[in-house]
């Protein structure tokens, strides 16, 4: 039994939905289907979910909702038309939208309900389309499926009992089409997952029904070993482990939402990333364990937008609690740290720049100076992190040497190395403008 | 004007004291002399300070003090005899000891007073000896010199006003001989510095009198670039900076007490490490700045006795305050951490094993598991740290590459790399049994 999840680009048009139906029907194991809302059809297009958000904002601000509503209706209209489905469906979608908007007051939950309309409508359309092809298929609302979540609008977390509810769906006849991205609280209120949350639904359903495979259909043939915008046509990754995926997704691997896999991971369901446009290609398998056949490094992730807070103080090393006190100031200022390399009398804290606007920097620096009586405190911005990832890297002698040599060959100074906690990754900090040459050189070293 | 400090081995015998006198008298700039207590004369000998500690412990336990007392008296006796000094000095030393022992009750301060007797007596002997050679010299008690310290028996810290008091000593005629290792509180109580504290006194006096040079006489010709017990006849370091010395001293560079230099450092007094047995050799200069002429790495320090606490938890990265909470438990348990490398969902904390006995380990592991709800927590012992140190290393491309290659060549797996906070050092963790081959290989790389 397989769970197939189709992303926004895979369901953007009627033409794509036909491909989706072909894929579903080509394998009787594909009993559960999870869909996103229609995504971009072309560069510059607007995703249906963004149109729903715009609609909600206009409504709140008492501006005209017509432009956004018309675009939404147009998109569904053309899909329904091209699939030769009954136009009554369109009326129902419009009614549902009006119903949400006309509820008593505009709470965050109502925004959640609007945001979820893209997925919900599309799941209805797809199940109708499958039926129109003479197949047994049905739309299953997440409430009916038993996907219970915490009461956190926009960042709901799944509750454990959901998995048992979902298990009961195994016996359901035909193909079940479930909209991604949302669940319901125990009180029956709709809550959405964080953005990208259709992946989360897919992963939850796969874990719940104990699928043999969770197929995640997207618009790339596979996960690449490095960002294709840095290296043209990079090597495809055939198989990687959950741990590797999790580490890679931290720094710039945006194939899908990085926390989405956790339910599948916990239930040990293998995941396959496939391309809706080339379903015959093998894609990338994400599994619990793999043979380390392709060398110690499987991927290179990289991301910009980091800053470093450097603090020095004589005899810091002797001062019990210094590190804790420094991190406490950051917690106080709602800044989470990424890494904290330390010398004898100094310590740096690496954070994401988006957590650290100028005014906060000023306050944090002042607090560190005054509360910790340090000798020096300074901030460096425009840092990039590069991570090499691979199972067994930790036990392979010479990986650090090959990696650091790659930096030297590219004439890139390494500002920071963090290695030793994760067994599957090694992280390097460089100045942002050195990211590209460094990644290119690492690619040469480990993949050529 | 110079301050010359002579360590325990330099004042262990009358013969050595003659060398010391020759050194002092060969340069009229050597106006201030700071001495340790007599150290070991040969492998297996007992330092006089240790005899005083033994004496105090016997007295407290109501055991016979004769054996220790006799050994102390014997040592001073032979020194006084061989230097042809008046035997009355010996009586005075004995009287002073009795005076301390017969005070009302045995408080930690009285142990401090006993511990300081080695230095104090030797300073008196040396000044008498210089006088017997027809030179103008005098014993200066730290109270008279104005060395004021905090009320922390055994780990006193100098108070700032001491430096002004010491400055007044500049006008004193002749050679001033000051016992190292102790000062007095404002209430007049004797307090010792941490062990090795004669270096501290020397450094304080040099800073106070604003010496042109602080000479630290010991039993090695210079500071070596690596531990001579690992590499035979290693390269001598001619000149290094305070920062380099401080980093090197952290991990196994035991030429002298690593925090002793700070007063000299703050006053920008250059320091020279010299050999009492070869005073004609140039020794090692420790300065504020140096030309980076000898390549980026000046020394390799290494030390065993580290342990690592590994913690993993899904979505740790998303949990604001996790790092702070982990360090808080350690602070609570009076454990100071050395380094804290972190992955995405895991973090390791490197600590010194001597802070982490088995019973404490059990409690800490339990607390981490229960209070932080982690997925995994484990402890690894028998780790060693290897540090390469050098000014400007941070801006030299390729140092990390050469270093990590050295580990690979020695077939040593790197358990941890910590680089990025200190500009002058890079730290590597390895299993303890890999320390020697790793250091040898690094030496080959950077010094051959």
Automatic annotation (TrEMBL), chains A, B:
PROSITE patterns: ACT, ASPARTOKINASE. One of its GO terms (molecular function) is ATP binding. Substrate binds at residues 49, 119. Residues 388-448 form the ACT domain. One of its GO terms (cellular component) is cytosol. Its EC number is 2.7.2.4. Pathway: Amino-acid biosynthesis; L-threonine biosynthesis; L-threonine from L-aspartate: step 1/5; Amino-acid biosynthesis; L-methionine biosynthesis via de novo pathway; L-homoserine from L-aspartate: step 1/3; Amino-acid biosynthesis; L-lysine biosynthesis via DAP pathway; (S)-tetrahydrodipicolinate from L-aspartate: step 1/4. One of its GO terms (biological process) is homoserine biosynthetic process. It catalyses: L-aspartate + ATP = 4-phospho-L-aspartate + ADP. ATP binds at residues 5-8, 218-219, 224. The keyword ATP-binding applies. Keywords: Amino-acid biosynthesis, ATP-binding, Diaminopimelate biosynthesis, Kinase, Lysine biosynthesis, Nucleotide-binding, Transferase. Pfam families: AA_kinase, ACT_9. InterPro entries: AceGlu_kinase-like_sf, ACT-like_dom_sf, ACT_Aspartokinase, ACT_dom, AKIII_YclM_N, Asp/Glu/Uridylate_kinase, Asp_kin_monofn, Asp_kinase. PANTHER family: ASPARTATE KINASE, ASPARTOKINASE 3. This is Aspartokinase.
